[in-house]
Design a protein that fits this description.
The chain is mostly helical and about 325 residues long. It folds into two domains: about 120 residues, Peroxidase, domain 1 (Orthogonal Bundle); about 140 residues, Peroxidase, domain 2, CATH 1.10.420. The protein contains 13 helices and two strands; from the N terminus they run H-H-H-H-H-H-H-E-H-H-E-H-H-H-H. Helix 3 packs across helix 5, helix 7 packs across helix 13 and helix 10 packs across helix 12. The longest helix has 22 residues. The protein is globular and about 60 Å long. It binds protoporphyrin IX containing FE. Protoporphyrin IX containing FE binds next to helix 3, helix 7 and strand 1.
Length: about 325
């Protein structure tokens, strides 16, 4: 009997550790650089604040860059590596930008603490600061650090959801990354800021599913407005705000959820969130909640823990665009 009890308790401890490992943020922790680069957060914020004051577009650009880097092969800055077949060259990443800001921040970090702070942590900290600045200081979250940089970057391994995918297929991709349905809806709240381009919505405006008609899910008044901005035969590919609430199109806030509830989502996936049985109640709650900013921060932290590399599986790059390891594939 004694053997049995000790076996059972060992099993319980083992299972508890297993589940801790499953839900913990791997090697990540707050204050990872306390000894090695104590001013890391101040250095990053100094550069980011200055850059944002002359270019507020950096906020949506970086939020998207963080999502694309983390979602494909983990948060390891593999998206920053230059190369003829690197992740940057994959279709969905061609319009991703923001690398120049990471270079500037990284140079400032190298000047203070050489070879210490990873590019992956630089992306996480810069994104956190830009979310904060673009919310008027209302959305500041703590983000654990300790990510190492990946040594591999291949366009062929980029795995991102497309705007025409169903909610359930999109969720399968989030689930694989240990993100819940609510996390997915919160993270898509990233579309509270930034733009898309006419080419992504022409089908919704003119020929939805080959019907020669607009997407019936989109508010007909919005269809009219957007048709003016995206004429059928124009070769231009104009920018369209993802958050159609004009006063807050450039602000991180919860207005995206109100917009998609009013059928004013821009991408098909945005509108679907508000109508699909799986997600509509979550959207409804977020549209009237006052804790979106806190919960968005928590979801960003969770996204930032996916596929993190450690000192054995990654490295600390000095230039974020090229890796040091001889076996690097980029
Ligand atoms: C889940 C499925 C998602 C799909 C299908 C999707 C798709 C897209 C597309 C097509 C664009 C416009 C690209 C362009 O016109 O160049 C875009 C922009 C953007 N996405 Fe997403 N996205 C998704 C999730 C997310 C998430 C989770 C975040 C944030 C964590 C995010 C943040 C952004 C931002 C900030 C922009 C604006 C970028 C800019 O202004 O340059 N997206 N997304």
């Amino acid at each position: 009997m004694a053997v049995k009890i000790s076996t059972i308790s060992t099993l319980i401890v083992f299972l508890a550790l297993l589940s801790l490992g499953h839900f913990s943020h791997g090697e990540l922790r707050l204050g990872f650089y306390n000894e090695t680069c104590p001013n890391v957060e101040q250095i990053v914020f100094g550069v980011v604040e200055k850059a944002f004051s002359t270019n507020s577009r950096l906020a949506p650009l970086m939020i998207r860059l963080y999502f694309h880097d983390c979602f494909s092969n983990g948060c390891d800055a593999s998206l920053l590596l230059d190369g003829t077949t690197s992740e940057k060259k994959a279709g969905p990443n061609l319009s991703v930008d923001g690398c120049a800001l990471i270079d500037t921040v990284k140079d400032a970090l190298e000047g203070n603490c050489t070879g210490v702070v990873s590019c992956a942590d630089t992306i996480a900290l810069v994104t956190r600061d830009l979310v904060n600045l673009a919310s008027g200081g209302k959305a500041r979250y703590e983000i654990p650090t300790g990510r190492f940089d990946g040594r591999e970057s291949l366009a062929s391994t980029v795995d991102l959801p497309g705007p025409q995918m169903s909610v359930s297929d999109t969720f399968k991709m989030f689930e694989k990354r240990k993100l819940s349905l609510t996390d997915m809806v919160l993270l898509l709240g990233g579309h509270t800021i930034g733009v898309t381009h006419c080419s992504f919505i022409m089908d919704r405006l003119y020929n939805f599913k080959n019907s020669q008609k607009p997407d019936p899910a989109m508010d007909p008044n919005l269809v009219k407005e957007l048709r003016l901005k995206c004429p059928k035969k124009s070769g231009q590919n104009g920018a369209i705000n993802l958050d159609q609430n004009v006063p807050s199109s450039d602000i991180v806030d919860a207005s995206y959820y109100k917009q998609i509830e009013s059928r004013r989502g821009i991408l098909q996936i945005d509108d679907q969130l508000a109508t699909d049985e799986m997600t509509k109640q979550i959207v409804k709650d977020l549209a009237v909640s006052n804790d979106f900013l806190v919960r968005f921060g928590q979801a960003m932290v969770k996204l930032g823990s996916f596929g993190v590399k450690d000192k054995d599986t990654g490295e600390i790059r000095t230039s974020c665009r090229s890796c040091k390891n001889l076996f690097c594939t980029a």
